[in-house]
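Exam revision sheet. Question 4 asks you to relate a sequence to its structure. Input first:
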Amino acid sequence: MRRTTEQPLTDLEIARRAEIRPIGEIAEKAGIPDLALEPYGRYKGKIDVDRLTQKEESGKVVLVTAISPTPAGEGKSTVTVGLADAFSLLGEKTMVALREPSLGPVMGMKGGAAGGGYSQVLPMEEINLHFTGDIHAITTANNALAALIDNHLHQGNALRIDPRRITWKRVLDMNDRALRHVTIGLGGPAGGIPREDGFDITVASEIMAVLCLANTLDDLKERLSRIVIGYTYDREPVTVRDLGAEGALVLLLREAFKPNLVQTIGGTPALIHGGPFANIAHGCNSLIATKTAKRLADVVVTEAGFGADLGAEKFMNIKARQGDFKPDAVVIVATVRALKMHGGVPKAELASPDAEAVKKGMPNLARHVETIRAFGIEPVVALNRFTADTEEELGTVLAWCRENGVRAAAADVWAQGGEGGKEVARLVLDRLGEGNEFHPLYDEFDPFEKKVATVVQQVYGGDGVQFTDKALKQLQEIEKRGWDILPVCMAKTQYSLTDNPAVMGRPEGFVVTVRELIPKLGAGFIVCLTGDIMTMPGLPKKPAAMNMDVDREGHAVGLM
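Answer key, structure tokens:
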């Protein structure tokens, strides 16, 4: 079913016309007993993992990643969903595990993040707008902690917290640049202690990362207690445990911690849970959702945010390490359109056939292939088809893959759903049968600077890394406290392999500058801020929200 001029259906229209089954039927298909399912309306539900009967995590994990993103679009989520439906059509017991969309990009650039065409998760409108309230719960927990910190200052400050060195920020699940730096506590003694503060977007909150990396409620509570919220006048760290706030936080998060069950258009059970960004956090859905899917399915299809230099690297070095499992196969999504942009073609000219530009853009794909191979895994390339792609352009990519020993196939999942992903799915099944030699790129006990350099050199293809004076001073404190054994979480632009978003393709001879280090003890990693990366994004000149509305029946309009 291909989009044509006679049938110009939007993703939203396709989703609304799709047959959607009651969530109880999807749970039964997945092997989830009634006692473990907590319905949220007719088509959504949460899973009480403790009530599942299947205990062994035997499912094989297929990680879907991509080349460096461009404004042309790569369709990684669409391919992820379509690939899961393809496995189901081939007779494999399959689940797909995805992140929850943040309202920031939904209202800003994307307009929706639940797949596309005939490879979507349903109910698409609800998933993109509030869903089961998990992100709101994280927002509330984060801001409750902020309120408790300021109340502690107001009530005498027994912990001697230095108001100038409070690192914990408030959050909002929206792109709002005006809140990056604010002053709070104005209005005299009744208004609290005046100090500088700021907002991050909710998906950049450490509480989001903590929820996504915790294994149990007890683990969640312990991780929350380790979060550093600031420093005393003597420059000693102050944690949530010092405040005694971890109990209240885990109470606010106890329902949000349960994975969410929905379905694809093809009827494949889908777990959508957690949503950290990959350019400022670790970019993977929750560990508990992935492990739950491994208990319920033979094949688990999941994705990591942006290109392999961001989400996939963090999936391997952070999530898989903390979760004590490995990806069994990796799929790299590429498009002719994006490769042409990496080859120098402006977005406005992408509709014109240009196989030569595709060739010029291929080094970007090559870099990501090399990255996955560095982890001991041979990737499969899924060439996501767009209507304007020519056979010569598609053939250029597939020929390069053959010449370089990379298994690859075109996928037409937007137009055909799972049927359009069968060829890629068969290649992945072959890989699953062969095994791999997966290993993280660095040892946790490597010197911190070596860990960062390893990512820059082996993943980005750079010459090395330099630290600003501020970052070097922070590193001294981190080493002094023994925190340097934690993995690194690079906060870097998604648009380039460098820390400069304007540099596309496969640059060489560059150095990445780390300007600031932020310990995230609850999440269990150290964030390295590079370039101009922001933890509170801004809205574009014309936000997607300006095209949104509801019709007379109350249905969403303009959501993709």
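Marking note for examiners. The mean pLDDT is 95.
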